[in-house]
Write a structure and sequence with these properties.
The chain has 366 residues and is an alpha/beta fold. The chain has 14 helices and ten strands. The protein binds 6-O-phosphono-alpha-D-glucopyranose. 6-O-phosphono-alpha-D-glucopyranose binds next to α3.
Length: 366
C-alpha cells in the first residue's frame, strides 16, 4: 500500500505530527491493564543481571544514551552504551549476567547487526528494540520489543526515536520493579505521567508557529550549538544531528557543563546557542552556563517551561515554551522542538527534507 503525506508538505512533517498517536499506541501495547507494565515473559529477570549493554547507530544511539540515565537512576544497573561501529571492532569483554540490547529503526543496520552477532554466545541475553518486526536484528535476538511507530519514510528519524525512547522508559521501569527499586505507588505515579505524555506532545507541537519563526533566523547561521544537561544532553546531540542532516548547517551538541572546556570559544553573535532546559534539579546549573554564553554576546534560544522562562528567559535572544513535564519524561517531550527546529530550518533553506543529500535511511553496508 502506498503511504501518503496526509496533507503535509513532507513525510518528516507528517511523522513529527504523528507522535502523540503512535506513542499512545506504544503505551497501550505495553501497559494493557493500565496498572502494570506488560513485557514478554522471555525477557531476562533483571534482578539476575549485573550489567546492561546498549548498542546502536545514529539517532537510535541517542535513544540508548538517554536510556542510560533512566536505567542507572531507576534500576541501579551499570549500563554501557556504544555506537555499533566502534563496539564491534573493539573486542569488548562481555562477562556473565550481562544483557545486550540493540536499538534500530530498520533492524538492518550493518554495524548494529554485526555488534549483535559479536555478543551472541557471549552475553546471556540478546535483546532488541526495532521498528521493523521481521528485520534481521529482531529475528536474531532472543526477545525483540516492537516500537510500533509505523512505517517511517523521512530519512531523518523522528517518530521512531520517540517510540524507542518510550519503550526504553517502560523497560527501565519494568527492570526497576524486578530489581526492587520501584514500589507499586511509584510505578502508579510513573504510569499516570506516561498516560499524560501524548497530551504534552500535542502541546509541544502547538508551538510550531513560534518554532517556524525562529527557524527562519537559524537558517542564516553557519554554526549552531545545542546544550543540555543530564538526560537532556542526548537530546542536544539529537537536535544537532537532526539539524545538520537536513539543513546542512554545522551543528554540535554539548553537555552544558562542558561548555567552558572548548565550545565557548566559538560563541559570538553569529552562533546561535539552543538550550534545552526544563525546570529539573539541574536547571540552575544550565542557566548559569547559559549566562556565560550571553555574557559573550551569544544568541541564546531557550527551550523551557513557563517557570524556566520566567527565571531565565530575560536576556535570551528567543524562547520556546514547553509544557511542564516530569524530569523523567522531559527527553521525550523535548525531542519535539529539536525535530521541529531542524525541520523548519531546513524548509527555510529549501533543502530536500525527506531525502537529504548523501544520507541513506538504512545503512546496510559498512
Ligand atoms: C541512518 C539513518 C538514521 C538512523 C541510523 C540508524 O544513518 O539515516 O536516521 O538513526 O541510520 O538506523 P537504524 O535503522 O539502525 O535505527
Amino acid at each position: 500500500t502506498q503511504i501518503g503525506k496526509g496533507g503535509h508538505r513532507h513525510f518528516m512533517a507528517k511523522e513529527i505530527a504523528e507522535q502523540p498517536s503512535v506513542i499512545s499506541d506504544v503505551l497501550g501495547h505495553y501497559t494493557k491493564t493500565g496498572t502494570r507494565i506488560d513485557m514478554p515473559a522471555e525477557l531476562p529477570d533483571f534482578a539476575q543481571i549485573d550489567r546492561l549493554i546498549l548498542v546502536a547507530c545514529g539517532t537510535a544511539f541517542y535513544a540508548c544514551q538517554t536510556a542510560k540515565y533512566w536505567f542507572e537512576q531507576l534500576t541501579g544497573l551499570p549500563v554501557d552504551i556504544d555506537i555499533a561501529s566502534e563496539f564491534r571492532y573493539r573486542s569488548p569483554p562481555i562477562g556473565p549476567r550481562t544483557a545486550a540490547l540493540f536499538v534500530s529503526q530498520s533492524g538492518e543496520t550493518a554495524d548494529t547487526l554485526a555488534a549483535l552477532r559479536y555478543c551472541a554466545g557471549k552475553a546471556d541475553h540478546i535483546l532488541s528494540i526495532c521498528n521493523v518486526p521481521q528485520s534481521s536484528i529482531a529475528r536474531e535476538s532472543t526477545v525483540a520489543l516492537p516500537t510500533l511507530a509505523g512505517v517511517e519514510i523521512g530519512v531523518a528519524s523522528t517518530k521512531a526515536f520517540t517510540c524507542q525512547l518510550t519503550v526504553l522508559a517502560l523497560l527501565a521501569l519494568h527492570a526497576a520493579r524486578q530489581r526492587g527499586h520501584c514500589d507499586d505507588a511509584t510505578l502508579a505515579e510513573h504510569l499516570t505521567a506516561l498516560r499524560g505524555l501524548p497530551g504534552l506532545l500535542n502541546l509541544a507541537l502547538g508551538q510550531e508557529a513560534e518554532i517556524e519563526t525562529v527557524s527562519r533566523e537559524l537558517a542564516e547561521a553557519r554554526d549552531i550549538l545545542f546544550l543540555g544537561r543530564g538526560a537532556m544532553y542526548p537530546i542536544a546531540l539529537e537536535g544537532a544531528l537532526k539539524l545538520k542532516e537536513i539543513s546542512y548547517i554545522h551543528a554540535e551538541g554539548y553537555a552544558s557543563g562542558e561548555l567552558k572546556h572548548g565550545p565557548i570559544a566559538l560563541v559570538d553573535p553569529a552562533v546561535p546557542v539552543i538550550v534545552f532546559a526544563p525546570t529539573d534539579p539541574l536547571f540552575d546549573k544550565t542557566v548559569s552556563n547559559m549566562q556565560e554564553v550571553m555574557a559573550r554576546q551569544g544568541k541564546v534560544l531557550l527551550v523551557s517551561d513557563a517557570t524556566g522562562l520566567d527565571t531565565a528567559g530575560p536576556g535570551s535572544w528567543a524562547t520556546i515554551q514547553m509544557p511542564h513535564v516530569s524530569p523523567f519524561l522531559a527527553p521525550i517531550l523535548y525531542a519535539i522542538p529539536a525535530q521541529l527546529l531542524a525541520y523548519h530550518t531546513a524548509v527555510a533553506k529549501g533543502t530536500d527534507v525527506d531525502q537529504p543529500r548523501n544520507l541513506a535511511k538504512s545503512v546496510t553496508v559498512e
